[in-house]
Write a structure and sequence with these properties.
A: mainly beta, 2 domains, 4 helices, 38% strand, B: mainly beta, two-stranded antiparallel sheet
């Protein structure tokens, strides 16, 4: 998810029909440059080396979205059909890694373990979803930023908040972020609960298979469940 | 099951040429990009991006969405939109504006 402007030029994108590192390559219609969907960087063509600014992203069910964002909007789509993803068989097969059978040579996690990825490209960290299924939040201190990742296992909603400017000691209880003993923000919306305090800013977070994240960010830090 | 990743898309190729575990697939044309092949598996635009999305209120959408349908959610300032990843499996990309800002939603 990216801002679609580079040097004041509005870009529109389509799927290029190409895969790089087993992931979607986008193509902008204006220059035909090709962009990695994962890193937001132009990797081929006139705009090579340019980066699209990432946007705050979250993942959640429709029911959770409705509860959190009653004034939010959702993309129109065809009438209610069968539930599920077109790719469910692929997702369920632990031995199918990418379309050409990328080898699982990773020993830190099973290749198709789900992780939440943050901080790319400069400070990537993968947080094992299994960890967040045991504890619903986690604070990660990166090289330049600190994030609070909040996960709700029922709806599978994941949100990352930038708490770089928040004093140490943020904790989460019953959907409230505390600093010390002070209830400070709503953990779902980031809305400040203290008068005069700024709302939290969401940070981009990507849900990915471990092997796919590792393919792009082999230097990534990994926070495991055990 | 929740659709798990945005890193493994363009798998329409998998749907048009199913492969079982362990089978080899013929290799499509490729270009070297930074030491890694970029495979051209479909023609550009074969998976149709969305260029003129329609955004629905939640009341309008209620009849179209399953409660447990997974969304990818974009936020710009106080504006929030969600898009079904089941639906985006067939489109991959949405070009739109949010709070006046041009964005691309990718899955």
């Amino acid at each position: 998810m990216y801002a679609a402007t580079v040097d004041s030029q509005r870009l529109t994108f389509q799927a290029s029909g190409a895969l790089w590192k087993d992931a979607l390559v986008m193509e902008d219609l204006e220059t035909k440059s090709r962009w990695s969907q994962v890193t937001g960087e132009a990797i081929l063509g006139e705009l090579t080396g340019q980066h699209l600014p990432p946007l705050a992203t979250g993942h959640m069910s429709f029911a959770e979205f409705r509860e959190r964002y009653p004034d939010g909007k959702v993309l129109a789509k065809p009438a209610l059909g069968p539930a599920g993803s077109t790719y469910s068989r692929y997702f369920a097969d632990p031995d199918r890694l990418g379309i050409f059978g990328r080898k699982n040579d990773l020993d830190r996690l099973p290749a198709k373990q789900l992780i939440f990825g943050l901080g790319h490209p400069n400070d990537p960290v993968a947080i094992d979803r299994a960890l967040l299924r045991r504890q619903p939040w986690y604070v990660h201190q990166g090289a330049e930023s600190r994030w609070l990742i909040v996960y709700e296992s029922g709806s599978e909603a994941v949100t990352a908040w930038d708490i770089t400017d928040v004093d140490d000691g943020a904790t989460v209880e019953t959907d409230t972020i505390f600093v010390g003993t002070t209830p400070s923000w709503d953990a779902s919306s980031g809305q400040a609960l203290v008068a005069g305090q700024s709302d939290l800013s969401p940070a981009p977070v990507m849900t990915a298979f471990w092997f796919a994240w590792f393919t792009f960010f082999p230097e990534t830090e990994l926070i495991r469940a055990d | 099951m929740r659709v798990p990743t945005s890193l493994l898309l363009l798998l329409g190729f998998l749907l048009t040429a199913p492969m079982t575990s362990g089978q080899e697939r013929s290799t499509p044309p490729s270009t070297d990009v930074r030491g890694e092949p970029m495979y051209q598996v479909l023609q550009a635009g074969d998976i149709p991006a969305i260029f003129d999305p329609i955004w629905l209120t939640l009341d309008e959408a209620a009849a179209l969405y399953h409660d447990r349908e997974p969304l990818i959610v974009a936020t710009v300032d106080a504006s929030v939109v969600g898009a079904s990843t089941w639906h985006l499996d067939r489109h991959e990309i949405v070009n739109t504006y949010l709070n006046g800002k041009a964005i691309t939603i990718t899955w």
